[in-house]
Amino acid sequence: MTARLQRLALPCLGFAALLLIWEVAGRSLGPALLAPPSIVAIQFVELLRQGEMLRELSASLRQMAIGFIAACLVGMPLGVAMGRSQVADAIFRPWVSMFVVTSTAALIPLFILFLGTGLMLRVTIVFLASVWYITLTTYNGARGISPQQVAVARSFSASRLQIFWKVILPALYPYLLTGARIGLVHAIRAMVLAEMFVIIGYGGLVHRSGLSLDTAPLLSLLITLMIVSLALNWLLGAAGRRLAPWYEQQRVGA
Amino acid sequence: MVSKTNVDKRLLSLASVVVVIAAWQWGAGHVSGFLLPAPIEVLWRFLDPKSLSRLFGALGQSLVQLGLGFALTLVVAVPLGVLIGRSRVLAQMFEPVINAIYAIPPVAFVPFLIIWFGLFLQARVALVFLMSVFDVLVIMIAGARDVRGTLVDVGRSFGASHGQRLRLIVLPALLPFFFAALRVGSARAINGMITAELFFAAVNLGAIMKRATQNFDSATVLAVVLLICVLGLLAQSAINLLERHLLHWHVRPA
């Protein structure tokens, strides 16, 4: 009972400490440098009421979803192929390891030249920022599938297709999910990055509110981003637990 | 047998790279409306002494903020991570707070950093720090928690003092995590380096990119992307080399 109480109370204490330090710092620095949470909270409700913040957010998230889903559709099969076939691994490995260290920000000027500053640019940047992480996580999972499991299936004369659907795919499940979650973090980052670069959508809103003399709107926008990011991550985790409750959420490295 | 398949795989990887670059060169010459500049042209940016000295001069300047920012990250995040990870109460208090802040895309803090640090070196160092500090912190917390109680108990039963246990057991057990943090953190820091140069006052590599974008000089833009990519790969291999040298007793799971 006390352990449970501790698990609930300590995080609250942590957040309370953060808010307290922030409030004290905000009050002594003034709202032009750091608006205290008491003022940000009022501003946050005001922005929610005005509606522009949520409108821009939902438009941006929809565009991000296109890039992210495309990244899943490409990255997951690619990761499985690389993990299960030595040939595919050899062919794609150099490219994946090169692209995964390429910084997304550096790609934006290049793709502005190719694609302009419209929807395609943002979707492409989100795609490129997330696809390699999804690929690599799936790859690690596909490589780690125990050969015994596959051998057992084979000795029960399962066909290759059956082995794939009944053994490999269920074993991959937690990795696909972790890949999607890691990919999503990078997709959201890329969304904000690209939008701030070309000053459009939610990122554009962040950029514009940075120009005002009051930091309360800016902080409200950051908090909204935080909530969205945490909520989407939680949603993916919950969806995974529902779809495959027999798999405990595994911790696999990024 | 094993070495033969390894050689085959290397050859296949090499072939994959050569084929794609050859196709790219051919496409740039023969397909109208082909967007990418020919690889020869990009390579020329590194062969021409004038543009080479410009690129590497800028890189040298960029490395200054990278070094300062990442050093700051290590000085702050490594001790803090160990401290939080070794204490159950601190971990329960602050991990949710850290995860919440970590969920905010760091680039969204750019307007803030401009307000606090201006547009020049300080702001760039701050962004490099901000983009790498949480990744290092999260890995070090996980690592410090992971140090097995049994190891520490063995030390205690052999009469090791608190200081000895820390120095001889906990710190060596943390080293693999420290290297993991270096790998992830350095990639993020390089990302921060170029992001900062594009989002604050454009300087160094960022300035070269922005100017080239305005002149539709995609070969130069691609050359800078390549340079950053090579920097990332070199950093990863240097860290891996150092790890193998220092941690010959530890086998990293593939």
Give the helices and strands, then pairings.
The complex is a heterodimer of chains A (254) and B (254).
Chain A: H1 2-29, H2 37-50, H3 52-84, H4 86-101, H5 104-115, H6 119-144, H7 147-155, H8 160-198, H9 201-210, H10 216-243
Chain B: H1 2-30, H2 39-47, H3 49-86, H4 88-102, H5 110-117, H6 121-146, H7 149-157, H8 162-199, H9 204-214, H10 218-246
Helix pairs in contact in B: 2-10, 3-4, 3-6, 3-8, 4-6, 5-6, 6-8, 7-8, 8-9, 8-10, 9-10
Describe this structure in words.
The complex is a heterodimer of chains A (254) and B (254). Chain A is mainly α. Chain A is 85% helix and 0% strand. Chain A has one domain: Orthogonal Bundle (MetI-like fold). Chain A is built from ten helices and no strands. In chain A, helix 3 crosses helix 9. The longest helix of chain A is centred in the C-terminal third of the chain and has 39 residues. Chain A is globular, with a radius of gyration of 22 Å. The two termini of chain A are 35 Å apart. The relative contact order of chain A is 0.13. The C terminus of chain A is likely disordered. Chain B folds into two domains: 36 residues; 210 residues, MetI-like fold (Orthogonal Bundle), CATH 1.10.3720. Chain B is built from ten helices and no strands. In chain B, helix 9 packs antiparallel against helix 10. At the A-B interface, helix 1, helix 4, helix 5, helix 8 and helix 9 of A face helix 1, helix 4, helix 5, helix 8 and helix 9 of B.
